[in-house]
Design brief:
- By secondary structure, the chain is α/β, with parallel strands linked by helices.
- Helix content is about 40%, strand content about 15%.
- The protein contains 17 helices and 15 strands.
- It has helices at about 15-25, 50-60, 65-75, 80-90, 115, 120-135, 140-160, 210-220, 235-240, 250-255, 265-275, 290-295, 300-305, 315-330, 345-355, 370, 410-420; strands at about 30-40, 95-100, 105-115, 165, 170-175, 180-185, 190, 200, 225-230, 285, 310, 340, 360-365, 380-390, 390-395.
- The strands form 4 sheets. The protein has a 6-stranded parallel β-sheet with strand order 9-8-13-12-11-10. Strands 2-3-1-14-15 form a 5-stranded antiparallel β-sheet.
Length: about 425
């Protein structure tokens, strides 16, 4: 019997919508190609899922936003009314996405107007993951997932009692990032760390829709002092928690193909974001051509306009230190900014990064697979990335080897030359 995996168009990450809005307003005629890739070796061939993926995509293309869902989105002040009106008439079109096989490899390609195909990504990844892991969805595996989630919760509860004290020279007046202050007594110990906050970023690689919801509901109930939101819009709405997300690589990569001089594409993308959101959604992604190249474009103007930066590749400590040094050079108080870490995180790694940075800057931690697919079964490392826009290739030069997805070596070589990166 057919069971639809996607039952609401809100069952996606917020940043797909926050990127769609500026694309609709600036580049409604863009043509784009998004390609699915599995980066690791699955335990059985993904090609065997082809017929089921086709069936799930057929269903996805019948869905529309309900008036209740649109009313929820309209409560987000950063969405303009014309964008909500666009979503009211939007539906995915099956002609823009194809599924095929090549040996044991599953190939999924979305090709068409960017505003119509960019949203396929999260749904395709969720569908393929759930179809793949249905073979492993046994009571024993689910109990193992619950046990591992319980261990994470215990770790967070223990952390509360052992990590929050820092010695501060006294006597003095302690000033907090929110503008308040408190008198200090000589020889006292004071807590000056920013709070630990983490979010669920696990929609794209979740074990299943049901497990994802159980995990989010459990964290929201058990550790609300630390768990502050989810990238999944449907679950944020259902459980009354914050929907988290700003931009992904595809947003900045698009500006490589819209007539902007290549060396200026990051600055153009950031400026367009500022004009779209006027101070909302102010966390910028830094690793499309590497942190060093990003910093050279992220001048005082952008440093004051954006609330913070997001890490998604490379050594997070090195990245964070570069960010803090850059803020210091610009004479920007890092306590007023936020560093968001989101690359291959788990709770222990997030806590270590928190200990390293939280007395100097606000921190946030977006944790994906380790929350939504830590079941004792090897997870898939799958992505669906923008590979072409307006008939030309786009790419990122990741700070982590192996994350680049571009089949045009000539363009990659040119991109490296422009941004002075070695192959």
């Amino acid at each position: 019997m057919f069971t639809p995996i996607i039952q609401s168009l809100l069952d996606t990450d917020l940043y797909k919508l926050t990127m769609l809005s500026p694309m609709l307003h600036r580049f409604p005629a863009n043509q784009a190609v998004y390609s699915f890739v599995c980066r690791n070796s699955p335990q059985y061939p993904l090609a065997t899922l082809k017929a089921d993926v086709e069936e799930q995509l057929d269903h996805l293309c019948t869905l529309t936003y309900t008036e209740e869902e649109l009313a929820y989105l309209a409560t987000k002040s950063f969405f303009k009314s014309d964008f909500i009106d666009f979503l009211r008439i939007f539906h995915f079109q099956r002609r823009y996405i194809s599924v095929s096989t090549e040996g044991d490899t599953l190939k999924v390609v979305a090709r068409g107007p960017q505003i119509h195909v960019m949203g396929f990504e999260i749904f395709v990844l969720s569908i393929i993951n759930e179809l793949y892991f249905r073979r492993y969805s046994t009571p024993e595996v689910l109990e193992e997932g619950r046990r591992r989630l319980a261990d994470k919760i215990l770790m967070l509860r223990d952390f509360r009692t052992q990590s929050m004290v820092v010695e501060v020279p006294a006597p003095n007046v302690l000033k907090f990032a929110n503008g308040t202050s408190a008198p200090m007594e000589g020889g006292a110990l004071y807590t000056i760390r920013h709070p630990f906050e983490f979010f669920d970023f696990g929609t794209r690689r979740r074990f299943s829709r049901d497990w994802h919801e159980e995990m989010v509901a459990t964290l929201a109930r058990e550790v609300p002092q630390y768990f502050k939101g989810t990238s999944n819009v449907h679950l944020a709405r259902k459980y009354g928690i914050a929907a988290i997300g700003t931009m992904a690589h595809e947003y900045l990569q698009t500006f490589q193909a819209v007539g902007v001089q290549l060396k200026n594409f990051q600055k153009e993308a950031l400026e367009a974001w500022v004009q779209e959101y006027r101070g909302d959604l102010g966390v910028a992604l830094t690793d499309v051509v590497g942190m060093d190249a990003f910093i050279s474009d992220f001048d005082l103007y952008f440093a004051k306009l954006f609330d913070g930066l997001r890490h998604d590749s490379g050594d997070p400590v090195i990245w964070g230190e570069k960010a803090l040094a850059h803020y210091q050079r610009l004479k920007v108080d890092a306590h007023t900014k936020r560093l968001v870490f989101s690359d291959s995180l788990n709770i222990p790694k997030a806590l270590r990064l928190y200990e390293h940075f939280s007395d100097r800057v606000q921190c946030g931690f977006g944790i994906g697979t380790d929350l939504s697919n830590d079941m004792g079964v090897p997870a898939l490392n799958i992505v669906m990335k923008l590979t072409e826009c307006n008939g030309q290739p786009v790419a990122k030069l990741s700070d982590t080897p192996g994350k680049t997805l571009c089949s045009d070596e000539t363009f990659l070589a040119y991109l490296r030359q422009v941004f002075k990166q070695a192959a």
